Structures are given as C-alpha cells and as structure tokens.
Amino acid sequence: MSGHCSRPVVLCLSGHDPSGGAGLQADIEALIAQGCHAAPAVTALTVQDTVNVTDFRVLDREWVLAQAHAVIADLPVAAVKLGMLGSVEMVETVLEIMQKLPGVPLVCDPVLRAGGGGALGKDEVGYAMRERLFPVSTIATPNLPEARILAELPEGSADECAEKLLPFIRHLLITGGHGDETEVHNRLYSRDGSRYDFSCQRLPGSYHGSGCTLASALSGRLALGEDLASAVKSALDYTWRTLRDAEAPGRGQYIPRRLPLDLA
Ligand code: PLP
Question: Fewest C-beta atoms under 10 Å: which of 13, 25, 93, 96?
Fold first, then answer.
C-alpha cells in the first residue's frame, strides 16, 4: 500500500557516529521508541569510539540537499530534528531545506562537542545556528556548556544564558546533566516569560548520545502532536530511563538503552 503510514515521519539532519551511541543511530532508535518513523539524512561523518572523537568530515552541501529533497518529495515530514551540522555552510544548507517545510516543528540540538569533549564544529557554527537557525526553530536543547558557548557567557548560569538567547528563539530547554547541582535541573524557558523546571535524580556515570536521544524524542513527541511542555516532559522522562538502563559496551562512556531488549 502506498501513501499510508500511521507513524509520523521525522526528518533527522545529523552526523553519523560509528560507535552507535550518538548521532543518527541515536535519532533512529529514540524515534522508533516514540512510535515515529525516522528519515535519517547524513550531514557529517565522524571517527570516534565511546571515549572520544578523533576526526570528522562534513558532507558536501549538494549531497545533504539531495538527501533532504528526496525525503521531502516523497514522505509527509511532520517534524525535523537537527543534530551535528559541523560547518557554517551546513547551517545555511539547513535553512534552505527548512524553506521547503514551512510550519513544520524544528528541534535544534546545537551539537558542538562529543560527549568526551572533542570538537564537532567550531564555536562559529554555534553562533551561526543562533543567528540563522534559532529564529526558525521551535526549540533548541543545549546542555549548559553548549548554552554558555552560544550565549558567549563562559561562566553564565542557565538563567543568564536564557536571557541572552531568548531573543533568538521561542523556546529553549537548557539541560543540567553537566552541571554540579545535586539533582539535575532541566529548565524550559519560553519567550512569553513562562518557565518550567523539570528536575530528576542525577545518575552516576557519563553518557554518549544523551543529548541526541533527548532532542530526537522531543521531535517525535512534537510530530505526534503533543503540546510543547508535555512533549518536553515526555522526552526528558524517556531519556532519563534510557540513561538508567545504559550499558558500557566499550572502554568509555555509557550508551543509553533506547529500545527494549525484546524487539526480535
Ligand atoms: N552527533 C554526533 C554525530 C556525535 O558524534 C555526537 C557525539 O559524539 C553528538 C551528536 C553529541 O552527542 P551527545 O548527545 O552526547 O551530546
């Protein structure tokens, strides 16, 4: 049967991580778990393991445009999720793609560093995201270190970063997993002045792909039609469970378990 799919389609524009912890694999798994269909378009390739990233290569813009246009021409895209873009040119490319998807929710995960700390793009890429992509995004999901880079406030609190960034974007979720508070505080800021603080128990260990998991789950929830605050809560709860159940298959960080074990 053609032209029928009960699961909303989410176009993912993200990098590939061959360790399977982050990037497009995280997107695909998290979206399947929400009951969505992922359409994964590659923006960049990375060389990395569960410890850190050693290299990356951003794809030619023509290749990314061609992938996205093939998806858009064929599938009913209900939301878009952005992960690693890697270059300022890729930021412009995504903007061009979004012009074909007016009104479609856009979740921007401003990826600049791998979980192990290695760079996945210069800070200029973050500034270009802030200036060019934030205005067309529904929400961005930086962790506190990313929010500090984007806000150019190296020591800033989440509140201070939000104040600096909200003129660019309607909603901002600053996650607290990298902070030093006893509990993790994930703070949702909206331009209309509303604020939510979703706190959760801090889990031990460090994780590879937690940000990708969260942003993808959120894009899936928006694709399913959930309202923003409820979609954020569902995505945070889901992500927390994937971290609680995480495993360490390599020498480095834990990888979230995004799918149940009994899928076979
Ligand atoms: N996207 C790609 C392709 C990556 O390789 C990484 C980290 O290694 C990320 C995104 C960000 O990962 P995290 O979700 O741990 O912030």
Answer: 96
